[in-house]
Design goal:
- This protein is mainly beta.
- The protein has a single domain, classed as SET domain (Beta-clip-like), CATH 2.170.270.
- About 10% of the residues lie in helices and about 25% in strands.
- The strands form two sheets. The protein has a five-stranded antiparallel sheet with strand order 4-5-3-8-7. It has a four-stranded mixed sheet with strand order 1-2-9-6, with no helix packed on it.
- Strand 4 and strand 5 form a beta hairpin.
- The protein is globular and about 40 Å long.
- The C terminus is likely disordered.
- The structure holds S-adenosylmethionine (SAM).
- This is SET domain-containing protein.
Length: about 180
């Protein structure tokens, strides 16, 4: 495996984001298309996840992965959800990494959010009050298309990468 360069994250910090719990915030302006983190992952094989993991706190933090579910080590586990995300992510199955890239310019003191997909298991506090649904707290994160499900390992750099991040889940399923 090639060595992976990690990132200087001195401008990012973890903050209490009210009912969302902790979240990731930036002190400085971050330009669009900036890679802000590469998180190594810890893979839980499908069987282990089905037998145990889905009944634990891990279920709130894991990403779909080839062969099971993955816990992002580092910032990747701390991004909250927004249906208008300002950060996209791309899984690199071969290198067991998730790369996070800004989708637009992000202002100082703004929270960095990814999209978990359409099937949330909690009431979305980013929504307007009359739009908040209850979510389904009993539904396993693994039981729907929670996270846009990249089916293959791809080059994680370049235009194709960012364009793919911006696909909606519906478009993603069609590709
Ligand atoms: C991957 S964790 C994110 C970090 C988490 N906030 C923490 O403090 O550990 C996912 C959990 O954060 C909370 N969360 C994330 N985005 C949210 C949102 N838009 N509205 C409400 N809760 C949210 C939910 O409890 C969810 O199960």
């Amino acid at each position: 495996m090639e060595p992976t360069q990690l990132f200087d994250q001195t401008s990012l910090y973890i903050q209490d984001c009210g009912q969302k719990g902790r979240g990731v915030v930036t002190r400085k302006l971050i330009p669009a298309r900036t890679t802000i983190d590469i998180s190594p992952i810890l893979l839980f094989p499908s069987e282990e996840y089905t037998l145990h993991g889905q009944y634990t706190q891990l279920d709130h933090y894991t990403y779909r992965w080839q062969g099971g579910m993955a816990l992002a080590l580092g910032l990747g586990s701390m991004f909250n959800h927004s249906n208008k995300p300002n950060v996209g992510f791309q899984r690199d199955f071969e290198s067991k990494l998730i790369k996070y890239t800004t989708l637009r310019e992000i202002q100082p003191e703004e929270e960095l959010c990814i999209s978990y997909g359409p099937n949330l298991w909690f009431p979305d506090m980013e929504e307007e009050p009359d739009q908040i649904s209850n979510g389904d707290s009993h539904r396993s994160r693994n039981s729907g298309s929670d996270l846009s499900d990249f089916s293959d390992s791809e080059d994680v750099t370049g235009e194709g990468f960012l364009a793919r991040l911006q696909l909606s889940d519906a478009e993603e399923e069609e590709t």
